[in-house]
Design a protein that fits this description.
Blueprint (H helix, E strand, L loop, with lengths): L4 H12 L8 E6 L2 E7 L5 H12 L7 E7 L3 E6 L17 H4 L7 E4 L11 E4 L20 E8 L1 H8 L3 E2 L2 E13 L9
Antiparallel strand pairs: 1-2, 1-9, 2-7, 3-4, 3-9, 4-6, 5-6, 5-7, 8-9
């Protein structure tokens, strides 16, 4: 069976079309193994670029996953060696899920915060869908939600293992070390 020349030209043209630029990835190596996350600097540039600045300068290396919440939200939270309230590079603007179109589904990576525009270095991974963390959700009295800026593309099961560890007052006992956090791809120009 032969392919008509016009169909063949269309197929070849489709193959030759440039692929859209992928999103940058970071690798978090823990004592349980590696985790790869994809950072969406297109939809959440403030939060994604913030994470990339911390990763690129080594400020997450030596940190830990210290907190686990299982109901009504399901998250594992990370902190730098200076703690979850590390002022680090300063607070960033809250990118609400109503603005980005992203949501707190299983695998989402989001910035921790106390109030709007207070997030600094601490981030968390959602282990099961947690819509209460989205804009209009009930997790915070202000209803502003949290800023999703990426997703786990490899290693989500490691967060389930972390949540199986003993917990006291939402604190993982003992916390899980982040041996290293590095960028696998170049940091986009918008973040520099």
């Amino acid at each position: 069976m032969t392919v008509a020349p016009m169909v063949l030209a269309m197929l070849l043209g489709a193959q030759a079309a440039p692929l859209p630029e992928g999103l940058p990835r970071a690798q978090i190596v823990t004592e349980y193994g590696p985790i790869t996350i994809e950072l969406d600097h297109r939809r959440a540039p403030v939060s994604a670029c913030n994470f990339m600045r911390y990763a690129s300068t080594g400020l997450y290396t030596g940190g830990r996953f210290f907190r686990s919440v299982q109901g009504p939200i399901h998250v594992v939270q990370a902190e730098t060696v200076h703690g979850s309230d590390d002022p680090g590079l300063g607070p960033i603007r809250l990118e609400r899920t109503s603005e980005t179109g992203m949501s707190h589904v299983a695998g989402a990576v989001s910035m921790a915060r106390n109030g709007p525009d207070t997030a600094t270095s601490s981030f968390f991974v959602v282990t099961h869908d947690s819509p209460a963390l989205d804009f209009g959700g009930t997790r915070n009295p202000d209803g502003q939600g949290f800023a999703v800026f990426g997703r786990v593309i490899y290693g989500l099961t490691l967060f389930h293992v972390m949540q199986a560890r003993p917990v006291a007052d939402e604190r993982i006992q003992p916390p899980v070390s982040m041996v290293s956090v590095t960028m696998l791809d170049p940091v986009p120009a918008v973040c520099t």
